[in-house]
Amino acid sequence: MHSTTDPERADAAPAWSADELSTDVHTNAQKADKVRRMFASIAHAYDLNNRLHSFGRDGAWRRCAVRMAGVRDGEHVLDVACGTGELTRAFARTGAGRIVGADYTGEMLDIARAKPPAQRVDDAEARIEYVQADAMALPFDDASFDVVSIAFGIRNVAEPRLALAEFHRVLRPGGRLVVLEFDTPRFPPIAWANRVYTGWVMPRTATWISRDRSGAYAYLPKSVGAFATREALSGLIGSVGFVETTMKPLTFGVCVCHRGVRAG
Fold it and tell me: Residues 6 or more apart from 132 whose CB is under 8 A from it?
């Protein structure tokens, strides 16, 4: 499938209008297509913006997710909404026997596939499989993975509960789910600073860096604010059958790493 990451391409019309962004973005009937178009538009600058606007903390968040997954030698790992493959590649530093990165947006996968392997893990990274797939209808057999992860993607799924149920389906008994997602800090001064930064500073600087016209960096803070709290997300994970659910706030609660286990 042909795709492009040129930010000046002719079809880069706004995915999100100002009126749509003034409502709950998660109830928009065209959310799935809008999210795909949005990520296609910003794919070329996605890694740079993540690194700059997290002040380099994104790498630490991914390392925490890998630790909480507890990958054992030879296990199979599925990284959903893998984007440009940064978390997928982090799993290559474990003893995983199979690593699959899945994403809904072809332009993101183009970048993931084109990245050169990191030193000392090149053999493992060469074995990564990248697959274009919908998180709500994964093209994998039941009980085919030991670990499923999704980083900053569950809120972008049209129906998060369906996606979580799919993750449960493709996990083997005893398999682990790890979900990284943004949240709101609870300490008032940090919460205020975070609102100013994510609501005003980041959308402007990230849009300028990416030359984005899709409305992506206006959507992203709106999508965090309108999404489930950490407690509600933990409850949702448990509601589809996961047990031993835990959550670990990171960087003052800017994001939270959730973990659940498929029973049996």
Answer: 1, 102, 103, 104, 105, 106, 109
Domains recognised in the chain with CATH numbers: 18-262 (3.40.50.150)
- Write out the H or E segment, with its range, that includes residue 18: helix 18-21
Phi, psi of 119 (to 5 degrees): -60, 145
Mean pLDDT of 223-238: 96
**pLDDT tens track for 76-119:** 999 999 999 999 999 999 999 999 999 999 999 999 999 887 65
In this structure, are residues 237 and 180 in contact, taking their beta carbons and an 8 Å threshold?
A: no
Give long-range contacts, CB 8 A cutoff, 24+ apart: 10-13: 12/41, 12/213, 12/214, 13/213, 13/214
Dump pLDDT digits (tens) for 26-39. Answer: 999 999 999 999 99
* Number of C-beta neighbours around residue 48 at 10 A: 12
Percent of the chain with pLDDT over 70: 92
Place of tokens 């070329």: 44
Averaged pLDDT, 254-264: 96
CB neighbourhood size of 5 (10 A): 18
